[in-house]
Specification:
single chain; 10 helices; 5-stranded parallel sheet; about 260 residues; 12 strands
Length: about 260
Protein backbone atom coordinates (compact mmCIF):
# COMPACT_ATOMS: atom_id res chain seq x y z
CA UNK A 1 0.00 0.00 0.00
CA UNK A 2 1.12 3.53 -0.68
CA UNK A 3 1.66 6.48 1.62
CA UNK A 4 -0.82 9.31 2.07
CA UNK A 5 0.87 11.33 -0.68
CA UNK A 6 1.70 8.43 -3.00
CA UNK A 7 -1.12 7.01 -5.11
CA UNK A 8 0.39 5.02 -7.95
CA UNK A 9 -1.54 3.22 -10.69
CA UNK A 10 0.35 1.45 -13.47
CA UNK A 11 3.40 3.58 -12.78
CA UNK A 12 1.53 6.92 -12.72
CA UNK A 13 1.43 8.90 -9.46
CA UNK A 14 -1.51 11.03 -8.28
CA UNK A 15 -2.20 13.26 -5.29
CA UNK A 16 -5.95 12.66 -5.10
CA UNK A 17 -7.34 9.25 -4.23
CA UNK A 18 -10.80 10.12 -5.59
CA UNK A 19 -11.81 9.01 -9.09
CA UNK A 20 -14.98 10.56 -10.46
CA UNK A 21 -17.50 9.45 -13.07
CA UNK A 22 -18.84 11.91 -15.64
CA UNK A 23 -22.42 10.82 -16.36
CA UNK A 24 -25.84 12.07 -15.14
CA UNK A 25 -24.77 15.61 -14.18
CA UNK A 26 -27.36 18.40 -14.61
CA UNK A 27 -25.07 20.20 -17.07
CA UNK A 28 -21.52 20.06 -18.45
CA UNK A 29 -20.67 23.20 -16.48
CA UNK A 30 -21.71 21.57 -13.19
CA UNK A 31 -19.70 18.47 -14.09
CA UNK A 32 -16.60 20.57 -14.64
CA UNK A 33 -17.10 22.53 -11.43
CA UNK A 34 -17.75 19.38 -9.39
CA UNK A 35 -14.67 17.66 -10.81
CA UNK A 36 -12.49 20.60 -9.85
CA UNK A 37 -14.07 20.91 -6.40
CA UNK A 38 -13.45 17.22 -5.69
CA UNK A 39 -9.76 17.44 -6.52
CA UNK A 40 -10.08 14.27 -8.62
CA UNK A 41 -7.28 13.75 -11.11
CA UNK A 42 -8.89 10.77 -12.87
CA UNK A 43 -12.28 10.90 -14.62
CA UNK A 44 -14.06 7.86 -16.02
CA UNK A 45 -15.83 8.18 -19.35
CA UNK A 46 -18.17 5.72 -21.08
CA UNK A 47 -17.40 5.65 -24.79
CA UNK A 48 -20.74 3.95 -25.57
CA UNK A 49 -22.78 6.50 -23.64
CA UNK A 50 -21.04 9.64 -24.85
CA UNK A 51 -20.74 8.54 -28.47
CA UNK A 52 -24.53 8.29 -28.54
CA UNK A 53 -24.74 12.04 -28.07
CA UNK A 54 -23.50 12.57 -31.63
CA UNK A 55 -23.16 16.36 -32.09
CA UNK A 56 -22.49 16.87 -28.38
CA UNK A 57 -19.63 14.40 -28.45
CA UNK A 58 -16.84 16.76 -29.47
CA UNK A 59 -17.94 19.35 -26.92
CA UNK A 60 -17.86 16.70 -24.21
CA UNK A 61 -14.34 15.57 -25.08
CA UNK A 62 -13.21 19.18 -25.11
CA UNK A 63 -14.71 19.72 -21.66
CA UNK A 64 -12.90 16.68 -20.24
CA UNK A 65 -9.59 17.89 -21.68
CA UNK A 66 -10.14 21.38 -20.24
CA UNK A 67 -10.65 19.97 -16.73
CA UNK A 68 -7.11 18.64 -16.96
CA UNK A 69 -7.74 15.21 -15.43
CA UNK A 70 -6.54 11.87 -16.73
CA UNK A 71 -9.25 9.98 -18.63
CA UNK A 72 -10.11 6.40 -17.69
CA UNK A 73 -12.41 5.04 -20.43
CA UNK A 74 -14.80 2.34 -19.32
CA UNK A 75 -16.80 -0.43 -20.94
CA UNK A 76 -20.05 0.39 -19.11
CA UNK A 77 -23.09 -1.38 -20.50
CA UNK A 78 -21.19 -4.36 -21.93
CA UNK A 79 -22.67 -7.79 -21.25
CA UNK A 80 -20.24 -9.99 -23.18
CA UNK A 81 -16.50 -10.44 -23.57
CA UNK A 82 -16.63 -9.52 -27.26
CA UNK A 83 -18.58 -6.33 -26.52
CA UNK A 84 -16.21 -5.26 -23.76
CA UNK A 85 -13.04 -5.98 -25.76
CA UNK A 86 -14.33 -4.16 -28.84
CA UNK A 87 -15.40 -1.14 -26.78
CA UNK A 88 -12.01 -1.02 -25.06
CA UNK A 89 -10.20 -1.10 -28.40
CA UNK A 90 -12.38 1.74 -29.72
CA UNK A 91 -11.73 3.77 -26.55
CA UNK A 92 -7.98 3.34 -26.96
CA UNK A 93 -8.21 4.81 -30.46
CA UNK A 94 -10.36 7.75 -29.31
CA UNK A 95 -8.43 8.67 -26.17
CA UNK A 96 -4.95 7.45 -27.00
CA UNK A 97 -4.57 5.66 -23.66
CA UNK A 98 -3.98 2.00 -22.75
CA UNK A 99 -6.05 2.48 -19.59
CA UNK A 100 -9.49 0.90 -19.44
CA UNK A 101 -11.96 0.35 -16.65
CA UNK A 102 -13.26 -3.08 -17.58
CA UNK A 103 -16.92 -3.86 -16.96
CA UNK A 104 -18.54 -7.12 -18.09
CA UNK A 105 -22.00 -7.18 -16.54
CA UNK A 106 -23.55 -10.55 -15.72
CA UNK A 107 -26.86 -9.69 -14.06
CA UNK A 108 -29.18 -6.87 -15.10
CA UNK A 109 -30.92 -6.06 -11.79
CA UNK A 110 -27.81 -5.67 -9.66
CA UNK A 111 -25.34 -4.96 -12.49
CA UNK A 112 -23.10 -7.51 -10.81
CA UNK A 113 -19.94 -8.29 -12.80
CA UNK A 114 -19.74 -11.58 -14.68
CA UNK A 115 -16.61 -13.07 -13.07
CA UNK A 116 -15.99 -15.57 -15.87
CA UNK A 117 -16.34 -13.05 -18.68
CA UNK A 118 -14.40 -10.45 -16.70
CA UNK A 119 -11.36 -12.66 -16.28
CA UNK A 120 -11.45 -13.72 -19.93
CA UNK A 121 -11.73 -10.13 -21.17
CA UNK A 122 -8.98 -8.99 -18.78
CA UNK A 123 -6.65 -11.66 -20.14
CA UNK A 124 -7.34 -10.68 -23.76
CA UNK A 125 -6.90 -6.95 -23.12
CA UNK A 126 -3.76 -7.35 -20.99
CA UNK A 127 -2.16 -9.43 -23.74
CA UNK A 128 -3.07 -6.63 -26.16
CA UNK A 129 -1.18 -4.03 -24.13
CA UNK A 130 -4.05 -2.57 -22.11
CA UNK A 131 -3.67 -1.55 -18.47
CA UNK A 132 -6.86 -2.94 -17.02
CA UNK A 133 -8.89 -1.65 -14.07
CA UNK A 134 -11.43 -4.46 -13.52
CA UNK A 135 -14.79 -3.72 -11.89
CA UNK A 136 -15.27 -6.84 -9.80
CA UNK A 137 -16.84 -8.25 -6.66
CA UNK A 138 -14.94 -8.74 -3.41
CA UNK A 139 -14.45 -12.47 -4.18
CA UNK A 140 -10.88 -13.53 -3.36
CA UNK A 141 -10.71 -16.25 -6.02
CA UNK A 142 -11.88 -13.93 -8.78
CA UNK A 143 -9.37 -11.33 -7.60
CA UNK A 144 -6.56 -13.88 -7.83
CA UNK A 145 -7.59 -14.86 -11.35
CA UNK A 146 -7.69 -11.22 -12.44
CA UNK A 147 -4.16 -10.65 -11.18
CA UNK A 148 -3.02 -13.80 -12.98
CA UNK A 149 -4.67 -12.38 -16.12
CA UNK A 150 -2.43 -9.31 -15.90
CA UNK A 151 -4.38 -6.79 -13.82
CA UNK A 152 -2.27 -4.69 -11.46
CA UNK A 153 -5.26 -2.89 -9.90
CA UNK A 154 -8.54 -4.28 -8.51
CA UNK A 155 -11.80 -2.35 -8.22
CA UNK A 156 -14.27 -4.26 -6.00
CA UNK A 157 -17.78 -2.90 -5.64
CA UNK A 158 -19.04 -1.48 -2.38
CA UNK A 159 -22.65 -2.14 -3.40
CA UNK A 160 -24.60 -2.32 -6.68
CA UNK A 161 -23.98 0.59 -9.05
CA UNK A 162 -26.09 3.63 -8.21
CA UNK A 163 -27.62 2.07 -5.08
CA UNK A 164 -26.02 4.42 -2.53
CA UNK A 165 -25.97 1.61 0.05
CA UNK A 166 -22.33 2.00 1.02
CA UNK A 167 -20.17 -0.98 1.95
CA UNK A 168 -22.45 -4.04 1.81
CA UNK A 169 -19.78 -6.59 2.75
CA UNK A 170 -17.21 -5.06 5.07
CA UNK A 171 -15.87 -8.50 6.01
CA UNK A 172 -15.23 -9.36 2.36
CA UNK A 173 -13.59 -6.02 1.63
CA UNK A 174 -11.39 -6.32 4.71
CA UNK A 175 -10.36 -9.84 3.67
CA UNK A 176 -9.51 -8.63 0.18
CA UNK A 177 -7.33 -5.87 1.60
CA UNK A 178 -5.54 -8.29 3.92
CA UNK A 179 -4.96 -10.84 1.15
CA UNK A 180 -3.69 -8.42 -1.50
CA UNK A 181 -1.50 -6.09 0.54
CA UNK A 182 0.63 -4.83 -2.35
CA UNK A 183 -2.12 -4.44 -4.96
CA UNK A 184 -3.85 -1.04 -5.33
CA UNK A 185 -7.50 -1.55 -4.35
CA UNK A 186 -10.20 0.97 -5.25
CA UNK A 187 -13.78 0.70 -4.02
CA UNK A 188 -15.97 1.25 -7.05
CA UNK A 189 -19.77 1.68 -7.05
CA UNK A 190 -22.58 1.83 -4.53
CA UNK A 191 -21.34 4.64 -2.29
CA UNK A 192 -23.93 7.26 -1.39
CA UNK A 193 -22.41 9.38 1.36
CA UNK A 194 -18.99 10.83 2.17
CA UNK A 195 -19.00 8.68 5.30
CA UNK A 196 -19.12 5.57 3.07
CA UNK A 197 -15.97 6.76 1.29
CA UNK A 198 -14.25 7.51 4.59
CA UNK A 199 -15.13 4.00 5.82
CA UNK A 200 -13.55 2.46 2.72
CA UNK A 201 -10.38 4.43 3.24
CA UNK A 202 -10.30 3.51 6.94
CA UNK A 203 -10.19 -0.16 5.85
CA UNK A 204 -6.92 0.61 4.07
CA UNK A 205 -8.24 0.94 0.55
CA UNK A 206 -6.15 3.04 -1.79
CA UNK A 207 -8.92 5.01 -3.43
CA UNK A 208 -12.60 5.38 -4.26
CA UNK A 209 -14.45 5.73 -7.55
CA UNK A 210 -17.97 7.16 -7.56
CA UNK A 211 -20.43 8.92 -9.82
CA UNK A 212 -24.13 8.89 -8.90
CA UNK A 213 -23.67 10.13 -5.33
CA UNK A 214 -22.20 13.35 -6.67
CA UNK A 215 -24.07 13.74 -9.97
CA UNK A 216 -27.51 13.23 -8.40
CA UNK A 217 -26.90 15.29 -5.23
CA UNK A 218 -28.90 18.45 -4.66
CA UNK A 219 -25.63 20.37 -4.95
CA UNK A 220 -23.15 18.23 -6.92
CA UNK A 221 -20.30 20.68 -6.43
CA UNK A 222 -20.64 20.77 -2.64
CA UNK A 223 -21.04 16.98 -2.52
CA UNK A 224 -17.95 16.48 -4.67
CA UNK A 225 -15.96 18.66 -2.29
CA UNK A 226 -17.33 16.72 0.71
CA UNK A 227 -16.28 13.38 -0.80
CA UNK A 228 -12.79 14.71 -1.45
CA UNK A 229 -12.48 15.79 2.17
CA UNK A 230 -13.89 12.49 3.48
CA UNK A 231 -11.38 10.46 1.51
CA UNK A 232 -8.50 12.49 2.88
CA UNK A 233 -9.83 12.08 6.43
CA UNK A 234 -10.35 8.34 6.03
CA UNK A 235 -6.87 7.82 4.67
CA UNK A 236 -5.33 9.90 7.45
CA UNK A 237 -7.26 7.88 10.04
CA UNK A 238 -6.03 4.59 8.55
CA UNK A 239 -2.43 5.76 8.63
CA UNK A 240 -2.85 6.98 12.22
CA UNK A 241 -3.74 3.45 13.39
CA UNK A 242 -7.35 3.31 14.62
CA UNK A 243 -8.08 1.77 18.01
CA UNK A 244 -9.55 -1.72 18.02
CA UNK A 245 -13.24 -2.07 18.82
CA UNK A 246 -14.29 -4.03 21.91
CA UNK A 247 -17.51 -5.37 23.37
CA UNK A 248 -17.19 -3.86 26.84
CA UNK A 249 -16.60 -0.33 28.05
CA UNK A 250 -13.10 0.81 28.99
CA UNK A 251 -12.75 3.89 31.22
CA UNK A 252 -10.97 6.78 29.57
CA UNK A 253 -10.39 8.47 32.95
CA UNK A 254 -7.85 6.84 35.31
CA UNK A 255 -9.44 5.26 38.42
CA UNK A 256 -6.20 5.13 40.46
CA UNK A 257 -6.09 7.84 43.09
CA UNK A 258 -9.76 8.77 42.86
CA UNK A 259 -11.50 9.98 46.00
CA UNK A 260 -13.36 7.38 48.04
CA UNK A 261 -16.33 8.54 50.04
CA UNK A 262 -16.91 6.67 53.32
Amino acid sequence: MTSNSDFTLYGQSFRSRLMLGTSQYPSPAILAEAARASGAEILTVSLRRESARLKEGQDFWRLIRDIGARVLPNTAGCYSVKEAVTTAQMAREVFGTPWVKLEVIGEADTLQPDPFGLVEAARILSADGFQVFPYTTEDLVVAERLIEAGCKVLMPWGAPIGSGKGLNNVFGLRALRAHFREVPLIVDAGLGLPSHAAAAMELGYDGVLLNTAVAKAGDPVAMARAFGQAIEAGRAAFLAGPMESRDMAAPSTPVVGRAVLS
